[in-house]
Amino acid sequence: MFENSLEFAKKQDASDSLASFRNKFHIPKDSSGEDLIYLCGNSLGLQPKITSEYIQEVLDDWAAYGVEGHTEAEHAWLPYHEYLTKTMATIVGAKPSEVVVMNTLTTNLHLMMVTFYQPTKTRYKIIVESDAFPSDKYAVESQLKFHNIDPKDGLILWKPREGEELCRFEDYETLLKEHGDEVALVLIGSTNYYTGQSFPIKKITDLGHKHGCKVGFDLAHGAGNIQPNLHENGPDFAVWCTYKYINSGPGSLGGCFVHERHANNNDLKRFVGWWGHNKTTRFNMRHEFDALPGAEGWQLSNPPILSMTAIRASLDTFAAAGFDNLRKKSVQLTNFLEFLVDDLKDDRINIITPRNPEERGCQLSIQVKSADKNLHTELTEAGVISDWREPDVIRIAPTPLYNSFEDVYHFTQRLKKVLN
Ligand SMILES: *Cc1c(COP(=O)(O)O)cnc(C)c1O
After folding, report:
1. Is the pLDDT of residue 284 over 90?
2. Ligand 1 atom 13: the closest Cα is on which residue?
3. CA-192 nearest atom, ligand 1
4. 315 and 337 part of one domain
5. Can the peptide bond before residue 191 be classed as cis, meaning omega within 30 degrees of 0?
6. pTM of the model
7. Which of 41, 107, 279, 308 is the most exposed place for a label (fewest CB within 10 A)?
């Protein structure tokens, strides 16, 4: 149903109801003013044009009101995180009470492990997928060490089989069959940052729970990309960042999900701060800690409004496009990319991302045998912004908010040229 031609790509763009959203973003340009082919939303999402207005509003309120801005600003700062909750909850398929924007991803991961990783003498191990993102691996190892557990003993890797790139669900089943009663926590990055594999969240969660484990997900590459349906799928917690697919600016704040079943459980251990305390008595200052129900109860600090306002600008853009529409376009864009890459008919190329759209987001991880980083450099010189992962993989992520079918077409043409 796809054709390998520029006309075809243009026709797809012309009939795309989301095509106009591209104009709502700043697209980086080359030195002659041409749009670069930006396929790197998995690393840093582009800036919505409205972001600067939203930030200016906060700066103006701060100038006009000083401290009174907490209550007097048009978007008062005191409850500012609440303006983000509804859309963020929609994006990850959660109830609003289950979601909060706070801190950054790795910080939230630690906070969640403080609560949901409670090792005992016999149940103390953590399962992660073997090629977890380095920060996640460091965080998990440090949690094990914090509890005086040697990571060599405490960490179980869910690995792809010899000669394969992707993790198979059967092998997760086997791990749990063999070690289920020793596992305290399952922590999986979905979508995997390297292969682009999206794991079956519900199946992983149900099986983990059946074996008495807590289950959490790192959605750094999932949030704003796939629909993780967190409430229905039922993991205990999830964490994500907002600077990748959620276009909220470099190093912007992260998101955190705590399932409703834990919302009012005050027996859960946690590291706390005043922002997680009952809103009505927070400023009385002398009360015993009284956790807010739901995910908000894990907040620590008075948050950075300037970062949150960039998230609000981005979420307003998501809400206007509609997440279901975005996901539909995303599947089409990536299928088109896959078709064009296959049509290069180049034996050096191997797409390691799953072929089934249900098992991936927008990213394709394209392995180019015997290539090195020069390939990436040449692509960059050809006006393609992509991302290189050693030893031989380019990650290409066409995002439905600002990428076009034409972008995808030009990318494969330029890849072809560089490879020859
Ligand atoms: C991007 C990414 C991170 C980054 O964590 P920060 O705390 O935001 O720096 C962590 N984990 C995964 C899986 C990522 O993809």
Report:
1. no
2. 133
3. 13
4. no
5. yes
6. 0.97
7. 279
Nearest atom of ligand 1 to the alpha carbon of 105: 7
Q: Is the CB of 128 under 6 A from ligand 1?
A: no
Residue 6's pLDDT is what? 98
- For residue 253, the CA-to-ligand 1 centroid distance in Å is 11
How far does the centroid of ligand 1 lie from the alpha carbon of residue 34, in Å? Answer: 31
- 115 and 108 in contact (C-beta within 8 Å)? no
How many domains is the chain partitioned into structurally? 2
Q: What's the mean pLDDT in 49-57?
A: 98
Binding positions are 105-106, 133-136, 218, 221, 243, 274, 302
Concatenated DSSP letters of 237-275: EEEEESSSTT---TTPPEEEEE-GGGTT-TTS-----GG
Residue 193 lies in a domain: yes
Please tell me the least confidently modeled range out of 92-106, 119-133, 283-297, 335-349.
283-297
Residue identified by tokens 């609000």 is 312
Q: What is the pLDDT of residues 97-149, one digit of tens each?
A: 999 999 999 999 999 999 999 999 999 999 999 988 889 999 999 999 999 99
| Dihedral sign from CA coordinates of 360, 361, 362, 366 | negative
Among 44, 106, 135, the mutation site with the greatest number of ligand 1 atoms within 8 A of its Cβ is 135
Asked if residue 107 and residue 179 are part of one domain, the reply reads yes
